[in-house]
Amino acid sequence: MWRLREKHDCSLATGSISMLPKLHPNAPRYRKYLREMRKLTLVSPINPKTLYVFKSSASITKERRRHIKYYKHTIHPYSVISMVREIGMSIIWFIYFTVHAFQLAFYEKHMSSNLVQYAHLISSFFHSLHIVSIFFTGCHDKKERTIILGLKPIALIYMRTYFAFDLLLLIPTQEVFRNKYFNWLAYILHLAACPRIITMGEYFRHITLFLELGDMIHELLCLIIGGFILIHWWAVLLFGIPKFQQTSKTTEKISWTTEGNILNRTVASQYIQSFHKASALFFCTSTGMWNSDRPTEWLTCALIIVTGTLYLNYITAIILQLAMSYKISESMYDKLAYQLFQYTKAKKLPQRLIVRLELYYETRFREKFFRESRILATLSEHLRYEIIYYTCSQFIQSTWFFEDLPKGVVGHVIASLTTSILITNEVIHYEDDTETPKLYFIASGSVGLYSSSGVELTHIEDGDYFGEHSILCRISDFRVSETTRNTRVVAAEITELFVLDMKDFVKYIANFPLAMNRIMQVAESRDNFNVRELEKRNQDMGIDLMTALRPDEFLETGRLRLVSAQRRYGVHQIRNFCDSFTTG
């Protein structure tokens, strides 16, 4: 059924990789620059998150076509520009939340005000760009598993979520709140945008993906960064509250800053002492080197202890959960990988085949081992159908094959599907097989259709299917040409297939005339296309051969010495051409 091809050399004219219309060679330079900028707004595999959503180059190409055709003024959420913006904003937000909290208590007017103003100006500039770009950047609806690119839905989603918080970051504190008693209110309004910390963690995933860090390491880093920000904010409050009370002269009780003579130290020493005391309270190790008699500081210390206890319990639960799930799935996968290593070693397989086996298992299990059949076997029939239907829902929406079938029949068909993974350059013999024919649906990836003479006819991509000709010839009087009967399918990339046996096809689909008529019409049109395309390619091939030949390539017998041409077009086509040339 399956055979390995040395290499898939695509000979079809695919056009521009970016799917953008090509410019004239003499086009103005600014148009070339605009075209390059437009490429940066399209979905790109350079974005490390792209492969989590689009599993194949065919699905990326399809998404680019949809983007270019219907949403010309939108930036794709998985584009290069979106990636750069998210990485930059994750860094800016981290600096913003730490610096503004620091200014809340430790900034004095005699310090370099120009530096602070420049920092505010640069920060506000990037935040303004971020707000504007969000209105033109699509978003990923993970519940519906769709990419939203319409400008109106994007604006509505942004207005309902983070728009108000982002506006708080643009408040000019030095201009609006000049009174020192209201500076607290200004900075607190800035810190009210703390929900963006969650977004900062999501954007931070780009950096960890570039560093090739796993999900577990990313979660741990986010927890560490979140803990640092919490302790930093509590350190600011520990120092800022007594400083504010001393300025307003609301109490005469001794503060921890007075007992330790903290106010007369440098800003760096003040922050270090405050951070030390906040850390000791946060991790419940001590109350610090100096105590206080003020109720407001008691309350602050109590809140720090409660927050630290909740944080420690949360991070402990998360670490245990991650470690257990990671250890179980990873250890089972490692055992499987070790068995594969011993197997290849015992069989003395070549390195090329070992690499392909490892690639197959990585694609099949994604470094997480599980037995899907055992899991599904423990579920009820209804729940099993729901899981399978949800898993295949995106595939069902992308193909027209199930449009003429009732939902109940679609459920039975989906439940009858089996999965199969093709590594790049694997060949499927399906049309003239002596085995029971099968119908193959492409869940992700793409394949190339070849004639028996080695001519590539077309590509079949996500949401499409093949193998219907052999089934129709078995169950009806449908006839196909010799070209289609002898075709082969070669995996152009790692491809995931859903396979439907002929008996299930007959059981669930053959009894619906509307669906069968449409399948037969498509099969007939594909057959005609294959015949026309093969004739066209053979004609083009003959012209290319005659152009490439030189007078000294003719032998005395009238045969052609075409070693280089054989490598390009295949031995079979060259022999046919030579025979026709000598007989003519």
UniProtKB/TrEMBL annotation:
| GO BP of this protein | regulation of membrane depolarization; sodium ion transmembrane transport
UniProt keyword Transcription regulation, yes or no: no
**Pfam family of the protein (one):** cNMP_binding
DNA-binding listed as a keyword = no
GO CC annotations on file: HCN channel complex
GO molecular-function terms, A-Z: voltage-gated potassium channel activity
| Cyclic nucleotide-binding domain: residues covered | 401-526
- Highest taxon above the source species: Eukaryota
Residue ranges annotated as coiled coil are none
- Which stretches are transmembrane? 118-137, 181-199, 220-241, 298-323
Annotated keywords:
Membrane, Transmembrane, Transmembrane helix
**What's the protein here called?**
Cyclic nucleotide-binding domain
> Which species is this UniProt entry from?
Popillia japonica
